[in-house]
Amino acid sequence: MALNIETFSNAKGGNAFFKAIGHPLAARKARALLNELQGTPLAVYDPLGFARAFAEIYDLAGLDIQAVYVQDLEEIGSDILGRQAQPVTDLPGSTAAKVLVTAFDAERLIAHIRHLLPEGAEVVSLDALRLPAEMLTNTRNYLDGLNFATNLVFFREGGGHHTRLATANYWSAYGAKAPSAWCLLMDEAGETLAEWQDPLPGANASVVIDSQAVRARFGLEAFTGSLFLHVCGIAGHDIVKYALDTYGDSDAVLSCTHDANSWPADLYGGLPAPKDGEQVLLWVQNSHPAPVPAGSVGLNLMGDDTVAWLEEEIPPFGTRAIDTAALLPEARWPQQIEVQAGKHFVRPRYEVVANGAMTPPRSRIAHANVERVDLKPDPRIPELANLLGKGFILPAPILPRDRFRSIALPTPMSTCQDNLPLALLAYDPEGREIGTKRLGKLPRGHATMIDVAGMLDGQDLDWGHMELIYDFAEGGEADGWLHGLFRYEDKASGHIAETSFGAHVFNTVMTYRNEPQSYAGRAPGLSTRLFLSFGPKPYEPLCHLIYPASTPWHEKSRTNLMLHDRNGGLIAEHEVRIACGGSLLWRPADYFSASDLEAAGPEGYVIIRDMTCRLFGYHGLTNGEKAFSFDHMFGF
Question: Model pTM?
Answer without folding.
Answer: 0.95
